[in-house]
Amino acid sequence: MGKEIFMSNPSRRRVYQESGRTRVGMCEVLLTPTKLKDGSYRENSPVRIYDTSGAWSDPSFHGDISLGLPKIRSEWIESRGDTEADEPVKSVEGTPFAGRKILRAKTGVGITQLDFARAGIITPEMEYVAVRENLAAANGIDDMSPDCPRNSLFIQHKGSEVPREITPEFVRSEVAAGRAIIPANINHPELEPMIIGRNFLTKINTNIGNSALASSKEEEVEKLLWSLKWGSDTVMDLSTGREISETRETIIRNCPAPVGTVPLYQALERAGGMVENLTWEIFREVLVEQARQGVDYFTIHAGVLRKFLPAASRRMCGIVSRGGAIMAKWILHNDSENFLYVHWDEICEIAARYDVAFSIGDGLRPGAVADANDEAQFGELKVQGELCKRAWSRGVQVMCEGPGHVPMQMISENMENQLEWCSEAPFYTLGPLVSDIAAGYDHISSAIGGAIIAWKGAAMLCYVTPKEHLSLPGKGDVRTGVVTYKLAAHAADLAKGHPASQYRDNAMSLARVEFRWEDQYNLSLDPDLAREFGGSKRERHCSMCGPRFCSMRANDEIREAFSSD
Amino acid sequence: MGKEIFMSNPSRRRVYQESGRTRVGMCEVLLTPTKLKDGSYRENSPVRIYDTSGAWSDPSFHGDISLGLPKIRSEWIESRGDTEADEPVKSVEGTPFAGRKILRAKTGVGITQLDFARAGIITPEMEYVAVRENLAAANGIDDMSPDCPRNSLFIQHKGSEVPREITPEFVRSEVAAGRAIIPANINHPELEPMIIGRNFLTKINTNIGNSALASSKEEEVEKLLWSLKWGSDTVMDLSTGREISETRETIIRNCPAPVGTVPLYQALERAGGMVENLTWEIFREVLVEQARQGVDYFTIHAGVLRKFLPAASRRMCGIVSRGGAIMAKWILHNDSENFLYVHWDEICEIAARYDVAFSIGDGLRPGAVADANDEAQFGELKVQGELCKRAWSRGVQVMCEGPGHVPMQMISENMENQLEWCSEAPFYTLGPLVSDIAAGYDHISSAIGGAIIAWKGAAMLCYVTPKEHLSLPGKGDVRTGVVTYKLAAHAADLAKGHPASQYRDNAMSLARVEFRWEDQYNLSLDPDLAREFGGSKRERHCSMCGPRFCSMRANDEIREAFSSD
How far is CA B167 from the centre of its chain? Predict the structure, then answer.
């Protein structure tokens, strides 16, 4: 299992772009030539697109899961000289990765990307990110003007943000301001750095992980690879079943994307599944262990405070976040404040030592449109803002999680409040779902809300599959969820006017006009499905019109008639 | 074939609500009781939802396609005494419907719903519509205040429009103002009247129809029934293949929803498929024939003027509308102005005699995001506005068609211009698709744009299936397209704050909280798929969390802890 998932399409190949200290992986889509009237051919330049597949799509990669990915960051991290050896992770002793070197920051030294950014230092991680985000440079576009003449391959409509070039210095300044994060644990050297922030490409996350009910370690690694193939930017391992540490170790060593977790889930398992047995000490132990494994960001539900529970209890759907419900129950049982809130500074210190970023959980997100934007939700959001500031003061990179179920007309208020209350920290939302009645179609209900909120400023969207609310997603559901979210994210990038984000749409549309069917498939978000639906055709008419009169073909005549205009 | 498509779910039943001269069909979703702590049960009231299935879901209906649906409007139409017998439709002579009585307006008499509305007359059609739209009354909700207490089954967030009651007088006034249409050909007595306007529930249309390439009459009727089952509000028959008239006759006689066509398609077939042979006379003949058959609205591409062709020819994707391309080619070949524009007044007179509404085609809609909101598109939209006024002056009900491919940030401009230039005539859009690269997922790309534009004021959305741009949709694609669009339309209704549109979401969310799985399935937009994904379960935990700790179950404890608050 592994490489064959990525090798199925000869028209998509892994290429590398060298820049400074980095060698950045990209995907190149090869196009077929256009046959001209006189019988000659016009070549069509390949289109370079953002690539999340890492070495998995590189034919020269060994593809052995037990060996893991190349450690492209090791040299960068070690050359900084600010880390020292840490204890090994005991719970993975039986795995192929048992003897791996573990690092932590030297005492008193700031080693996070935020620390560097504030100090004015551009890291190789920042350089890598800048090249990845630069779709214009990757495709050789130098005229970034939105008023480019029609009929060229580069038309970029003006978006809500002014198009700009993504330079390493711009990356640094956004990280320094807290408006973006580069989740990059020093113990995840296999990572290809990426950035989450509203002035960059919109990112998506895939949740994988087994539950006590179903699925094996192998299935989860396979889901990881499929989600990378379809373009997931980060992966959250939400395992609660057997072999949690071993599964996560295999995932991290083979994942070129940041890996996030909800440490509370493993802590609860370690407490025997009983909230009554859960303690700060167990949680702390899990946190350190996961940081040593290389987890890049932690979801921590520190904003679920005791004072919000009465409001949450009056809701139609109460608390639907698993982490939120665990903490609410813990608060009730112990008649104490949320220990994650109480120990926040210590949690920050642990995270800072490994450069683990935070994704401050929204434990009180609405689970029904009836509960949207209510007292409990917005009360927690303000606390999330306070926690952001405390994390920043300790050098920790941070983003905030957001809803949930929110009807369209109430989405903007979420974004506006988050920007204000959380001082522009990146917003990472689950949809939002714009209706409650779409069981089986909740990937679409949430993609509608997700596209809107990302356009308005959310930096990352957590995917939702068609099985949401109904059962655990299988491989096919992961594919549907990831591709649907890539679409929502891309729609938001067009709407924001991200530099050259429209280039691929333009290439696709030209392929349509010229009946280059294979190019249409390969430029699509899901080439395999497009090819499955379209078939291997050569017709110069579309299937809706049929051969007798095709509007696309009629265009040739119309264009010819006015070619002298 | 027929009834069995509708009879699969015993928890959804057809009910009738009597009001004035009308007996309005609705769908009642039966819910299971809730088991309380003390072991007793609380009954849950059935939820009434808008129903498009007509008599097909009524167990007492004969279900014979060759006999057609009950003619519920015949008495209304005849009692008005303003019609006379017209010639039969020759091309359906071989069908079971050959001897059917055909009506037309008496000379000089205005018989359209617009004529009546302007004269201050409330027709049974208007009464029918008012009952259908009144989800609050149907569910016994009398407190329409948006500040209804939490935890009740009726929470309705404030939308962009102020909630109001839908009375017959309100329906009349909206039709009179041209802000809404009731497409209801006097030769379609089987119709259950419905309304298209932005101050009503958002409607969706399904395209069916064979092409020269594929599919039979039986397949198309089956697609019709499936689309009604999943909730399509109107159906467009876009057939271009064999037996066009016979297929349409069978569709209309069995369709409780308005049927729309693009008469130009049949005219082109009658001209041997050659644009060169197409004439106004052929078109006129087709128009009259289809009006006599009972087509409720005509798409007519009268806004594609010669002066817009140079701009269209400079586009990335040229003209992608089939009707638009036909007319452009005709204009070029004949070196004349569009005959639909030239003969507009005569077309209006034909339509007025049968009360056929117009859907003024957007032949120059953009087929790529690169072409969105350009000179050709907006030039035509202004002409659509002129054509609206001319139609109104002859008593014809009218709506305008809209795009197409438009990135999110450019959608609002479409809606604003349409409202202004077309004097608030209803806007009927195809999506819009918010990106070009989603082949295989274009139902989602367009549902994102569709939800947004309907929220902003579009009255009806034309569905898009996953096969868009790739091949002709099959039955399963029709289902996916229709359900996806019902979702987009419903999301828009929530966002507009349509009275009691949130009632069903609330019922769904309560069913979730109480683990009433069957109720969740039956309240969903697609109960069959939800049940297929969810399985027949009785667990009091959700599949994401598993049995050990479930956030929904934890809510019971939290709610109990604060029940005295």
Answer: 21
The structure tokens listed for B6 are 């509708």
Contact B552 A318 (CB under 8 A): yes
CA B521/CA B161 separation, integer angstroms: 30
- A520, B439: Cβ pair inside 8 Å? yes
* Cβ <8 Å between A157 and B317: no
Q: What is the DSSP letter of A405?
A: B
Report d(CA A241, CA B377) in Å as an integer.
56
Residue B296 in tokens = 């409720």
Give the closest residue to B415 by CA, choosing from B458, B373, B461.
B458
Would you call A325 and B558 a contact, using CB atoms and an 8 Å cutoff?
Answer: yes
CB B463 within 8 A of CB B443: yes
Convert A186-220 to b/e letters by CB count within 10 Å (16 or more is b): bbbbbbbbbbbbbbbbbbbbbbbbbbebebebeeb
Nearest-neighbour CA in chain B from A349: distance (Å): 29
Q: How many angstroms separate the first and last alpha carbons of chain A?
A: 57
At which residue do the structure tokens 């009091």 appear?
A: B540
Q: DSSP letter string over B250-276?
A: HHHHT-SS-EEE-HHHHHHHHTTT-GG
- Does A563 contact chain B (CB < 8 Å)? yes
* SS3 state at B22: strand
Instruction: State how beta strands B357-360 and B398-402 pair.
Output: parallel
Residue identified by tokens 């598993």 is: B546
DSSP-assigned states of every residue in A81-132 = --EEE----GGGTTSTTTT---EEEPTT---SHHHHHHTT---HHHHHHHHH
Q: Report the half-sphere exposure of B60 (CA within 13 A, side-chain side).
A: 4
The ipTM (two decimal places) reads 0.96
What distance lies between CA B295 and its chain's CA centroid? 14
A358 phi and psi, to 5 degrees? -105, 145
Our CA-based measurement puts residue B556 at a distance from the nearest CA of chain A, in whole angstroms, of 9
SS (H, E, C) A32-72: CCEECCCCCEECCCCEEECCCCHHHHCCCCCCCCCCCCCCC
Lowest mean pLDDT among A7-11, A288-292, B152-156, B496-500: B152-156
Residue from A487, A481, A448, A475 nearest A462 by CA: A481
Question: Which residue, B383, B392, B345, B386, is CA-closest to B364?
Answer: B383
Residues 495-524 of A with CB under 8 A from B: 495-497, 502, 504-506, 508-510, 512-513, 520-521, 523-524
Which residues in chain B touch residue A457, judged by CB atoms under 8 angstroms apart?
A: none
State pLDDT tens for residues B423-460.
999 999 999 999 999 999 999 999 999 999 999 999 99
Q: How far apart are CA B506 and CA B512, in angstroms?
A: 10
Q: Which residue, among B32, B59, B60, B36, has the nearest Cα to B46 in the 3D structure?
A: B32
Using alpha carbons, list the distances in angstroms from residue A322 to A191, A240, A367, A385, B541: 28, 12, 11, 21, 12
Place of tokens 């980060």: A234
Rounded Cα gap, residues B302 and B262, in angstroms: 12
Q: What are the tokens at A325?
A: 């419900």
The closest CB to that of B565, out of A158, A310, A440, belongs to A310
DSSP state of B123: P
Closest Cα in chain A, distance from residue B103 (Å): 33
Instruction: Report the C-alpha gap between A181 and A425 in whole angstroms.
Output: 9
pLDDT digits (tens, 9 = 90+) for A416-455: 999 999 999 999 999 999 999 999 999 999 999 999 999 9
Lowest-pLDDT choice from A6-20, A260-274, B82-96, B542-556 = B542-556
CB atoms within 10 A of CB A321: 26
Q: Does B438 touch chain A (CB under 8 A)?
A: yes
